[in-house]
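Why show two proteins at once? Because comparison is the fastest way to build intuition. When a single record is shown, students tend to memorize it. When two are placed side by side, the eye starts asking what differs. So, the first record is below.
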Amino acid sequence: MIEETVDVTTKDGRMESFVCRPERHGPFPAVFVLMDAAGIREALYDAARRLASVGYYVVLPNLYYRAGRDTIFGPDVMAEGSADHTRMRAIRTTMTIPDAMIDVAGLLDFVDGQDDAGSAAVGCHGYCMSGPYALAAAARYPDRITAAASFHGTWLINDVEESPHLNLGKVEGELYIGCAEHDHLAPLPMVEELRGLFEASGAAGEIEIYPGLHHGFTHTSSKSYDKAGSERHWERLLALYRRRL
């Protein structure tokens, strides 16, 4: 595979992004991997490499770029009371879905200029805080984001601008929403309310509960990591991308 770090230009600045693609010549379908609250780290690089290994042009942006270049945290970032956790939360709480949509627009412009990134159809999936971003992107850019997924996404029904539940009817592609059974950031009553809205919207896709699992089950760096659940999420994600990209 070929790996590089590039600056993606957005309306708000230069967003450092990890790009990974197969070594052979493309074009390959483009996929955006949107990070969780813990930020850019080796577990996410590995996720990008896994996608590239099966034939995708993968872009992993650092969504914290507005707080400064190389805004990356240490392994105790999710430990409440740690310096990195405090710093991360201060940045995280300033982020909005409209800001993330600016970032997705920059990513779309970037892949459109790359010879090895082909076709208008783009995939986008997010974890934790970025689950809502991925779903919102499918509604904001329905002609481009034809496959979007959220894994243990937080507050999928919210009173913020462009909350995913408000715009499900604008989605023209397919959505997949994978939720942990035990997740205080997306409690089951909220998930079931979202399911009703999803079905009423007529959007293509599904919402799936991962029984017995907790928030953060997808990544090896999480204390809630579950190998079987993580592999199941990969199965669902790759099947979605094969269908739609």
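Second record. Ask yourself what differs from the first in the token line.
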Amino acid sequence: MSQFFIENNFLKVGINQVGAEFASLQSVEDGTEYLWQADPKFWGRHSCILFPYIGKVWDDKFQIGEKTYHGKQHGFARNMPFEKVLLEKEKAIFQLKHNKKTLDEYPYKFSLLMKYVLEKNQLHIIYEVENLDDQPIYFSLGAHPGFNVPLKKNEKRSDYSLEFEKAESAETLEITDGYLDGNSRDVFDGKNTIPITDDLFDKDALVFKHLDSNFLHLKNSAGEKIWTFTFEDFSYLGIWSQNQESPFVCIEPWFGVADELNASWDFRKKEGVVELGVGKKFSCKHSVVIY
């Protein structure tokens, strides 16, 4: 598997050609690895890109027009090789375009650009979808980066917490077998902090819609900020880890969400889906600052 690197005086970032998945986020100063290293015992990926849909589609199929398409969780982009468009010292761009394989699974002609840009101790990840079709296209788009939590051998994951920019009232949308089940529950209790307790993910991911905050911090037991993750303008935010023993936490900004149980198969009416006109471009960005 080809892997490419960008680097400055603060951070070194590794990016896999397959899925344009960023696979390493290291401190240049002390070599600390902040990104989850895909141990298959827990979760065998680093930071997969979710396109053209988020989560599961009901019964692994969906309808567009008169045709039924089949697809697995989170779409095909994460498993496909991207073309390297640009590789500079502090910037890399990769592209996935429609091809015979994608058109068999998803009928629209598109370009998906992934841009990785370093700015001092911050990594910007920029997504750009362009409609190359002669009709509007419909898609969801999201990120799935996993971060090492804890970072030190003498720590536990439960020594850490997530502190949001603002106190939140949004409830997490509950999941059953990978699908939204129509229920929700409060995890904020009017506060801005979620302790990463051992049982936090016993009911699968936390999924929030329209949070007031634009960023969150990972903090250790001493209250020190480890990193700040910015997700401004995204419609949804997922937070996930595999089980109580998994030493990582994923922060997942999304445009789109998994289907509900027994959902309609009309992909164009899927919750959170983006409609993009002919010749138009859609872009979004999330960033992480390392302290």
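One difference worth noting in the second protein: Residues 3-290 form a domain with the Beta-galactosidase; Chain A, domain 5 fold (CATH 2.70.98.10).
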